[in-house]
Amino acid sequence: MSINLALVLTVLTLFSGVIVAFDKFVWARNREDGSGSTTRRIIVEYSRSFFPVLLFVLFIRSFVFEPFRIPSGSMMPTLLQGDFIFVKKYAYGLRLPVTEFKILETGAPERGDVIVFRLPSDPSINYIKRVVGLPGDKIVYERHRLTINGEKIDLEIHADATPLEPRFVEQLGDRRHEILITDETNNWKDGTFSVPAGHFFVMGDNRDNSKDSRFIQAIPETNLVGEAVRIWMHMDGLSWPRWERVGSKIQ
Known about the structure:
The protein has 2 domains: 5-63; 65-245, Umud Fragment, subunit A. 23% of the residues lie in helices and 33% in strands. The protein has helices at residues 5-25, 28-33, 38-63, 213-216; strands at 65-69, 83-88, 94-95, 102-104, 114-119, 122-133, 138-142, 145-148, 151-152, 155-157, 167-172, 175-180, 191-194, 199-203, 219-220, 224-234. It has a 7-stranded antiparallel β-sheet with strand order 1-2-16-5-6-14-15. It has a 4-stranded antiparallel β-sheet with strand order 9-8-7-13, with no helix packed on it. It has a 3-stranded antiparallel β-sheet with strand order 10-11-12, with no helix packed on it. Helix 1 (5-25) crosses helix 3.
């Protein structure tokens, strides 16, 4: 059972805010003459203490940055399982918490951006992938090579590539990034895809181990959460943190 943290935080903020407002405008007289109950005074004191903190956290989490943890290796080698990242919430519009209703347009994903989005089949689950196709694009993925609107995207062998870790360098838009191709004979993920209006075609950098738009279809703009911008911690299980990854910009 997943917990909707945005809903919990919003409810707690509203509850504590209502209590503070009632105390100021309704219960003030009882508080001054000492007739207010002890339970009420305790609730009011706690609400006064927590309301500004909850409001601040809700604002930052909803409109500025939200932390996420990378749960799988689908974005290797760019992101590793156990990376903790910051997601810029205002990159693709300001949305109200819980309802996700957009109140202000601030931009749109560009080719190569690493984005977090809500899975269309289950919006309670967040995925992270790289934007490959924009609305109206025609995407062909064949034998591990991308062709976008008739233009084949070049791949370069990474200087540190090995037979056990076949790494390549790919450039999408302004983003020059690494990808993994782990199974040179596996072509069953190939296909031709048209990106509908208002949708984005996404893929994992670990091309042979990623449940992306080849399987879950293009992602509606309404499901976007934000742009992944920086790693703030890496810790996988009980191992020591990998300090060299802290603060890394996501390419």
